[in-house]
Design goal:
Elements lengths: L1 E8 L4 E6 L4 E5 L14 E7 L2 E7 L2 H9 L11 H11 L3 H11 L3 E4 L4 E3 L3 H17 L8 H7 L5 H15 L4 H28 L2 H10 L1 E2 L1 H17 L11
Antiparallel strand pairs: 1-2, 1-4, 2-3, 4-5, 6-7, 6-8
Helix pairs in contact: 3-6, 3-9, 4-5, 4-7, 6-7, 7-9
């Protein structure tokens, strides 16, 4: 039989188990077969003899014991309205899964080097630092106009990716039409990724030509860029109806 320990008194080594059928069974420490002492809330498998539990084996260990002590019924989460709605968001369409990837990508490495790595969100500060270095190099005659100044203003567009991803999540949760938010978020994610490519190109153009090849091998595009491109393309394809969630019913 299977059940759960209702309580255990370590002083006298006795306790009680509630079986799945609702019946209760007393037990003693001598019938316990676990490595650790019995604890309230632990799921167990046992044999019943005349109302007493024998050969008791724990099924869940300390983790389930802790849950039992907190009186948390996790099985009810999946059947709750909120749990069902959250599950539907990840199985009905690709809107929320891809939107979450976009949000995650915004905080992963977008551009990296042995000295520093920055995310899409932190790209503006990095470009501002590089712009100052580029001006100094230009004054010393070691570099050309990189165009970082104009790019700094253009980088404001990078915030469209996380903002539209949040909009898409809201639309999906509220039951609003998802097609337009999916297409806009997809386009914003692709644009954000392309901005990182532009920043890398601008950085290399600011480096003296003799050191440009070496610098190109040092600067690399991070995982965040590729996730933005993947999620952006996926959202556009899903918004246009070319792909659908494999978990969707019907």
């Amino acid at each position: 039989m299977k059940g759960k320990i209702l309580g255990y008194n370590d002083a006298d080594g006795s306790g009680a188990i509630s079986a799945e059928d609702g019946s209760r069974h007393r037990f003693t420490r001598a019938d316990w077969r676990g490595d650790k002492p019995p604890a309230t809330g632990v799921a167990v498998d046992f044999e019943s003899e005349g109302g007493a539990a024998k050969e008791i084996y724990p099924l869940g260990g300390a983790a389930l014991a802790a849950l039992g002590n907190l009186n948390v019924d996790l099985s009810g989460l999946s059947s709750s309205a909120g749990g069902a709605r959250a599950t539907e968001l990840f199985t009905k369409s690709l809107a929320v899964p891809f939107a979450i990837v976009v949000l995650l990508a915004c905080f992963l490495t977008a551009l990296g080097s042995p000295m520093k790595s920055v995310s899409l969100i932190g790209l503006g500060d990095a470009v501002a630092e590089l712009e100052g270095a580029a001006r100094m190099a230009s004054m010393m005659g070691g570099g050309s106009d990189s165009g970082l100044g104009g790019l700094s203003a253009l980088l404001v567009l990078r915030f469209a990716a996380p903002l539209t991803a949040l909009w898409l999540c809201w639309a999906a949760w509220a039951g609003k039409p998802e097609r337009l938010p999916m297409l806009v978020t997809g386009a914003a994610a692709v644009v954000a990724a392309l901005l990182v490519f532009l920043v890398k190109s601008a950085i290399l153009s600011a480096v003296p030509e003799m050191a440009r090849d070496m610098m190109a091998s040092q600067i690399h595009l991070g995982l965040g860029v590729w996730l933005l491109l993947l999620a952006g393309a996926g959202l556009i394809a899903a918004g246009l109806g070319f792909i659908r969630n494999p978990l969707a019913k019907g």
